């Protein structure tokens, strides 16, 4: 099990889409999944900039683990427009144990591939990554 997990490859498209989000702001969010057959992390879904946080939250499966990037725009108390890039490790309690272990053991390596993440969140249910939590962690 340890070998399979640590040998998880990262599809080039994962980094490419992240760079587009970070540099060009062409995406609001990216949802990544581990393809167990190919033994690699792949892009499952990309959300365009007009989509909301609710659209993002709705794109995470209820009973399966995922990694996700969310580009959060907000206004500071000094009235400055800012954005923070969140890395969210979605691991619902209802997911298969093997899947949770696989995502947990592959997370750090995958996260290192994405340069420019500002905040990291771990969520096992929707309340742990609600908009209030995101807002609180952004400041």
Categorize the overall geometry. globular
| Strand line-up across the major sheet | 1-3-2-4-5-6
- Strand runs, count: 6
Order of helices and strands: HEHEEHEEHEH
Please tell me the overall pLDDT: 93
Task: Quote the beta fraction.
Answer: 25-35%
DSSP summary: helix tally = 5
**Which runs of at least 5 residues are low in confidence (pLDDT < 50)?**
1-5
Structural category is: alpha/beta
What helical percentage do the residues reach?
Answer: 25-40%
Distance between the termini: 39 Å
Please compute the radius of gyration using only Cα atoms.
15 Å
The major pleated sheet works out as:
6 strands, mixed
Describe this structure in words.
- With 139 residues, the chain is of the alpha/beta class.
- 35% of the residues lie in helices and 30% in strands.
- The protein contains 5 helices and 6 strands; from the N terminus they run αβαββαββαβα.
- It has helices at residues 2-6, 12-24, 53-58, 97-113, 131-138; strands at 9-10, 29-35, 40-47, 66-75, 81-90, 119-123.
- Strands 1-3-2-4-5-6 form a 6-stranded mixed sheet.
- The radius of gyration is 15 Å and the shape is globular.
- 25% of the residues are buried.
- The model is unreliable at 1-5 (pLDDT under 50).
